[in-house]
Amino acid sequence: MNRNTKALLCAGLVAANLALPITATASTYNASTDTNADVLDYLENNKRSARENAILDEQKQLVHDAFEMRKNLRDPLDPTKNVPVALEGDELFYDQHSGDFYATGKVNITSLDAQRFQTEEVKGNLENTEVNVPGKGHVVQMTPGQAKIVMDGYKIQYNYGKKTGNMEDVSGKIDKEYIKGKRIELYPDKIIVYDGYMTKCSAQHPDYRSTASKIEVYPGDKMVCHDMKFWLGDVPVFSAKKHTFRLDKDDNNLEMPRVGYNRDDGWWISKDFNYYLTDNFYLNADVIYTGKNGFHSHGAMIYDNNLGKFELMTGYYESSSNKWVKKAPSFRYTKAIPLGDLPFTVALNYERGHWSQNNIHSMHTYYGLTLSHDTIDLGGNHRLDLSTTYSVTDESYNHSRIKGLGYAALLRRDVDDRWTYYTRYSYTQANNKNSVFDYDLDDYSRKMSAGFSYKFNDRDRFLVGTAFDMSNYTLADMDLYWFHEFHCLELISRYRAKRHEFGFTLQFNPW
C-alpha cells in the first residue's frame, strides 16, 4: 500500500455523466411603451441572463485548477484512456496492484476536464472505475460543452467507466435549474430524479416549483415529468399525469404566467406557449384573460428556416397603448438578409389578412423593406443605429393606400453600471389619423423620444421615457417605470403621466 496526501491517477471523475443540459431561459422582458423606452429592454434582459448563468467562485476555481493540471502534464494525453485525475486527501491509501483506494479527511478528486468531487470519506477501485461514498459528497462540473453542475448527495455509488450510478437526498443546480430529489439515477443517455422538484428560484422554500414522482431528463432532447404538479408557494395551481418539455430549444412552457393591471384591461393574466411539431415548425399560443374583456388570446402556426419566417396568425393582438385588433386570420412573412461584408442588413416584411377593430373590418395588406446599418460605435460607450424603411399599407375597408419612406436614428449610451440614456428621432408615413386601424401607431408621424434608466441597487431601477410630437413641438407621452424585485418575483410599475394612468406587471424571475 502507498500512503500519500496527493496523487495523479488516470481515472474518470465521479459524476462525469452528469452533463445533462436542462435549458430554459428566463422570460424575456418587452416594455409596453409609446416612448421607445423598449430600446433599453436589453438592460433588464441582460441582467436576467447574467443571473441565470452566474458562476460561483468554486466553479471559477475549478476551471483554473484544471487549466493548471493541463499545463503540468508530463506526457501527452492518451484518448483511449480515461482523463487524468488528481486525488487529494488528509489520509490516502492506494494499492497499485489491485487498484483499490481509500481516502479520508478533506478529499478532492479533480479531473483534467474540469470536474471535481469532494467528500470526507471515499473508497473505490481505479481498475473497475468504481467509487463509493457512504456519507455526503459534493460535485462541481465545468466541462466545456457540458452542463454546469453544483450538487450535493448522499450514499453515492458511481461507475465512471460505465457512466452509471445513483445518489440519495440530492440538491443543487444543473445549468439553470435548481433540483432536489430523494434519489437520482445516472445513465449514459439520461438522468432520472425520483420524488423531486425543479425550479429557477434558489430559495430554501422556492416561490414556485414543479414537483413530480419521476423526472426523466434526456440531454439535448427533452424532460418528461410524471405526476407533475406546479406550485406557487404551498398552493398547487396546475397538474398533469405526464408532461414533456423541450430541452433542445428554449421552451417557454417552463416560464411562469404573468399577472398585472392597467386601466383599459383591468386585472389580467397571460401565459405564452410553444409546441414544436418539428425543429422548424411549431405552434404558438398566448392565452390572455382580462377582467374587462374576458379572454383575448391569439395563436399562430410558425415555420422558421433559412428562407425566412412564415406565420399564420389568428386571434386578438394588443399594442403598447392597450389597443386591440383581431386577426382572423393573417399571414406574415419576415426575412433579414445581411449584405455580405457590408455593414448593412435588408429586412423584408409582408403581412396580409382580415383585421377587425371597433366594428371596422378590412383586408389589411402591408409591404415593408428596411435597410439598416450595423450598430456604429462612436466611442465613449455611444452607439448609433440608423435605418430607413419604404412601406405600403392597403386597406379594403376604404380602398386606401399609405406609402412612402420612413427613417429612424437611435443614439444610446451606457454611462456606467447605473446610468443609461437614449435619444431617437423617427418619421413614418402611417399614423392614427390617416390609418383605418389605430393598432401600434402614434397620433403623429414625426417623433422625438428620449429617456434614461438609473439603477439604485441590485433590486431597484427607475426608467423615464418621453415622446414629443415634432410636427407640433408638444410633449405627447411620458412613461415612468419602477422595477423592484422580491427575491424570485419582480414588480414592474408603469405610470403614464400625460394620461394619468397606472399599471403594473408581476412576473417570476430567476434569482
Basic shape: elongated
Count of helical stretches: 2
Strand content: over 45%
Question: Which regions contain 5 or more consecutive residues with pLDDT less than 50?
Answer: 1-26
The largest sheet, given as strand count, sense and whether it forms a barrel, is: 16 strands, antiparallel, barrel
Going across the biggest sheet, name each strand in turn.
Answer: 13-14-15-17-18-19-20-21-23-24-25-26-27-28-29-30
Question: pLDDT average, as an integer?
Answer: 86
For the record, give the distance between the C-alpha atoms at the N and C termini, rounded to a whole number: 48 Å
Quick gist of this model?
By secondary structure, this protein is mainly beta. The protein has helices at 41-52, 57-71; strands at 2-10, 84-94, 100-111, 115-125, 130-141, 149-159, 164-174, 177-186, 191-199, 208-218, 222-232, 235-246, 258-262, 266-276, 281-290, 294-295, 298-305, 308-318, 324-338, 344-357, 360-373, 376-379, 382-395, 400-414, 419-427, 446-455, 460-469, 474-486, 489-496, 501-508.
